[in-house]
Amino acid sequence: MTKKPGFFKRLKALEPLQKQLFATALCQRMYPNYQLFAEVCEFGDSQVLSTVLELLWQSLYDRKLKFNYEVHLERLDAVTPDPEDFVVYGAYPAMDAAVALTSLLSAIQGKQEDDMVNISKLSSATVANYIEATIDTELDGDALDDFIFEQEIMQEERELQSSLLDIIEQNPISAELVKELRKDIIASGVSNIGISAD
């Protein structure tokens, strides 16, 4: 039995449109982090992120769809929180959600495939930072890294990214696949750090 290549090697081997689908799915999953923060802190506008997500999903199966990247990048920039302006931790995952979408739009616009792949790392980093912020431990270095990887929420993040990659590798991109993935992520109702959209 041959060993499967590593996760990032497989991710980098995807076609550009497959990478875009993978990154869009992760951005959708991060969205509740922003949504809740915007509501609680009365900051920004989650509709800006929602609109960009809608366009990104649609662009995956409607190849004629054109949208103005510059306009949406400006709007995202205007509603991205600076965590230093807030006392609540939620500003960090909210910022990550907005930055992920900004990175994805810029990557598509500039045809920078590596930047699409990096959204995987950004989503995992959001989870790692959340674990670090919510645990009561004096660990650091490798011991802290090991502890973070053992946590259930990080295991779930890795499993979700892995199963998402499997689905995208095994199925041609179609309107049905895109709509099904979007529906499943929204229906799960939970972000990468366990924030519920409700």
Walk me through the structure:
- This protein has helices at residues 7-12, 16-41, 46-61, 69-79, 91-110, 113-134, 141-150, 152-170, 175-188.
- The chain is mostly helical and 198 residues long.
- The chain is globular.
- It has one domain (13-188): YP_001051499.1 domain like (YP_001051499.1 fold like, Up-down Bundle).
- The protein contains nine helices and no strands.
- The relative contact order is 0.17.
Features:
single chain, 198 residues, mainly alpha, YP_001051499.1 fold like, 73% helix, globular, DUF416, YP001051499.1-like_dom_sf, YjaG family protein
In DSSP terms, counting alpha (H) and pi (I) runs of 4 or more, how many helices?
9
Return the CATH class. Answer: Mainly Alpha
Question: What is the mean predicted local confidence, pLDDT?
Answer: 93
Overall tally of domains: 1
> How much is the radius of gyration in Å?
17 Å
The CATH superfamily turns out to be YP_001051499.1 domain like
Q: How many DSSP E strands?
A: 0
- Biggest beta sheet summary: none
Percent of residues in helices: over 70%
Protein name: YjaG family protein
